[in-house]
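Bench log, entry 3. Co-assembly request; chain sequences pasted below exactly as received.
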Amino acid sequence: MGENEQCSCGCSAKNNEKKYYSVSAVGRVSAEAGNINIIPTQWTLRDRIGEIRVRLDMGRMNYAVAPGVYAVGNPDHQSPVLVSANYKLSFDILRRELNGLNVWILVIDSKGVNVWCAAGKGTFGTDELVQRVKMTRLEKIVSTGKLIVPQLGAPGISAHTVQELCGFQVLYGPVRAKDIKKYINAGMKADSMMRRVDFGIIDRLTVSWLELAHAAKAVVVGMLFLVGLSMFMTRIPGLVELKGEIRLLPILFLASVLAGTVLNAVFLPYLPGRAFSFKGGLLGLAACSGIIYFSGQYLPVISYCSLILMGSGISAFLALNFTGASTYTSLSGVKKEIRYSMPVIMIMIFCGVFLEIVHVIRRLL
Amino acid sequence: MRLRYLSGVVTLAYDVNKCKGCGRCVEVCPHEVFSVENGKAKMVDKDACIECGACMKNCPFDSIRVNAGVGCAAAILASGKKGKVVCGCEDGCC
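Structure output for the full assembly:
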């Protein structure tokens, strides 16, 4: 996304009136540019609760700290300056790793969004960084003339332009905050492991819960609808024989949702193929077949096909949506996947619903 | 195990003639797409590129071009066919 493309949803206007979360100071340093708060590296209970809340998608878009300069330890004019986004969780994770160091943190206004996403949107960008350096009169605070910007901010920052505009040289720090101490101790050098973005099991699980939380509303509505539908249908005299399979509907729906979100995230590296929708579709197929098998019911072919088509279609679609949460998909790649998979997913769900209707009508006649 | 997405799709283009071998692209790339050999950058793993645009933005010699954006199906589907893909921060996909 280019530098001039602002977020079209109008969030920047709204965010102007945002109230910032305060960070309690443990002291103050007086610098030429004014007094600067020293912040603790330990988390309080409030910080912990805050993390759990935003991980569950509660108030995540309003979790910001005030931009500006903060101090950790007892920094002086020779201390390193670490640049951070003003998403409070990013800021908290950074400061937690700084125990024992004497550094400055320059928080820039990324509209309360984390470094990577804000860099993609351009809010964690060259202009904001340059302005913030000037506004805080950073050259009065340090004499090193250097800024350590997290590497994941690089899609929004043009290092040579920053140097041209405000004189500060940009050094790209490690991807993860946990490597920052090692990076500083190595004389601002990052090895290739510090530069690489992975998508390990912990990362995948963390973001998959968010994915599930996003789908939660649709899932609750869908479940209520299916439970109601199955209660209604099982009372129709002609459908008594179908009782068992009708009752399976809500269970299979829930299984498909879990297969397309959490299970897909967990098994991502071990599933065949590269397209997310293919992986998710396979999981939906496995989950639905397994449940039908273990329910011990004998289903006619038409009904079996219908349930499997609907179930794997839902899982495939949800898995496709996981591309956004993953760390290794490209815009061109996802566009291609959508082009091929969306028609298939739509046909699967349509055929599944159609077959089920045919099946039920045939019973009634 | 290293995860890999579809191959042969990325829009990353690199002009070796403009390159002065400063190594910024190697530094900013999160997926080790570039490496510097004999004073010039080289694309060693183009298919690993996620089109984040960091290399293009940080190349002082303007030798890298990529159609940068987010590989997010929800954002692409929401933006429809009409135009640019914009990550909607309201629904907060990231």
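Residues 331-364 of chain A form the longest helix (34 residues). The mean pLDDT of chain A is 90.
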